[in-house]
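does this look right to u?? 2-deoxy-2-amino glucitol-6-phosphate version
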Amino acid sequence: MCGIVGYTGSRPAGPLLFDGLQKLEYRGYDSAGIALLTPEGVQTVKNAGQKDVMALEVLAGKISLLPESVTGIGHTRWATHGRPTDANAHPHSDGSGEFAAVHNGIIENYMVLRERLQSEGCVFRSETDSEVIAHLLARHYSGDLAEALRLVLAEIEGSFAIVAMSSRHPGQLVAARQNVPLIVGAGAENEFFIASDIPAVLKETRDVYVLEDGEMAVVAGGKISFSDFAGTPRAKTTMRVTWDAVAAEKAGYEHFMLKEIDEQPRALRDTLYGRVDKSGAINLGIRAEFFSGVSRVVLVACGTAYHAGLIGRELLERWARIPAETAIASEFRYRRPLVDERTLVVAVSQSGETADTLAALREARKSGARVLAVTNVVGSTAAREADEVLFTWAGPEIAVASTKAYTTQLEIMVLLALFLATDRGRLGREDCASILAELKALPAKIEEILARKAELQRIAAYVSKADSAFFIGRGLDWAVALEGALKLKEISYIHAEAYAAGELKHGTLALITADTPVLAVVTQKALYEKTLSNVEEVKAREGRVLAIARPDNKGLAASADEVFWLPEVSDALAPIVTIVPLQIIAYYAAVQRGNHVDKPRNLAKTVTTE
Ligand code: AGP
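got this back:
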């Protein structure tokens, strides 16, 4: 995944583009570049990151080398085709240097196009799929840049957001979107800002056009026009962004991840707000017919969102007694899933742009299923393509490691399961009311945990020295263990695996040594004794057990080496609270190891490739 920006107006474009790229760094950060339109042609600076210096930091030192210009494009990259090198960084130009383009996505037929262009004399300077766009633009150009882009679009296959410009058209940018997000912000001074995501333009404008798949935009001379790829004009209106740009900033924290961990009480309150009416009934804002006759639920998602889906499945079956399954989105679409019009497919995605989840969503729609998106991003593709949407109101999540998006996804899972359970008469109003009362009280309990970071820092100091760690739990605790292990591995780079605690003795115990931390999640009352036996199994092999447990599991104190006691919480809602100490342990372990916490190596915040 990559982040792209464009600017045309009357102010110096270089600093504005750089500012936008900084906001998009979460989308990819292995290389970056900016190109400006000047009377002498396109002038470009671009580079990969260097050892311990991020690509944008390197780029910052080069911006001053560029001449002043009021039009330009920029890019921050997460490598797919071609290594992260200076040459592979965008923007890419054609041989004459008159055309330049930035691209996010994958051009699937680029090899064929590249070979053809090479046979026609084009010299390629990068290993990327994207470079073909610049060469094709030059080939197709006959006086109209938008028309040239249209002809390029007719040749390329795959997914893309593209912004291009040419020194033959000062002040003009052309852009297109197919399966990859792109927005255009309308600025105050007859200026336009193009970007992959809204935070990149918020400092300058709140009025934003969201491009649909198959749409192009042309901006020039303070005017904007839209069309489809065939050139048929489209009318579009701006949407007003109401959330605050400051919310996307670090607000004094060293890392976004810690800020976002601390924001969880607020995010949970916001997500619940307005969804339970005065009579205690759940109001999801979704028309009643949407759920009627649903006989099965399939939750599709990736990574952390998949872990949230695992908990959703359990609660749907437990409370609503509806058969439910959770599928990894990248697997779902290839297994010819059995879904029909009585299946509710719930696509869970923080970004709403994850390619695998979108592909699963589309597959489900094709099969006639009703599709509900659970997403954090208004205007995202998932939100627009699903039949209905439930937003998590977590606010922008910038750190690659998902935290507040996960806990708010869990809250939505609880609300959805309770709604269906009461709607179908599977759960009485009183039981529902008491669960909702507890849900409302959870933010305060999380605040208690957040005030005890020092305890968790001590545990993290020990974990940070390990080469390998295991997470164990049963039932809902196992689902939380999976998420705890993912958090630890993605930012600390410590090998971490989660096991259903009962599975340890079927192989994994062979790996337990005195140097292996085993993080035991012990919150489920009915499973407590069983998990305690698994803790004993680890202790008998000299493993070190660090437990996260409910206060009534006091017997654990004798078996585990260290216990972090949680506030009192019921079995069903325990995951929303239990994950918080595991997030904090992962965070401090990564800090202790000196890692880039917010931008871990090899990863990107939003994965728009399959
Ligand atoms: C979690 O920390 C990761 N960033 C990752 O697993 C993420 O949850 C996954 O890529 C799905 O993203 P989405 O929620 O935006 O679809």
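The chain has three domains: 3-248, 256-447, 453-592. idk if thats expected tbh
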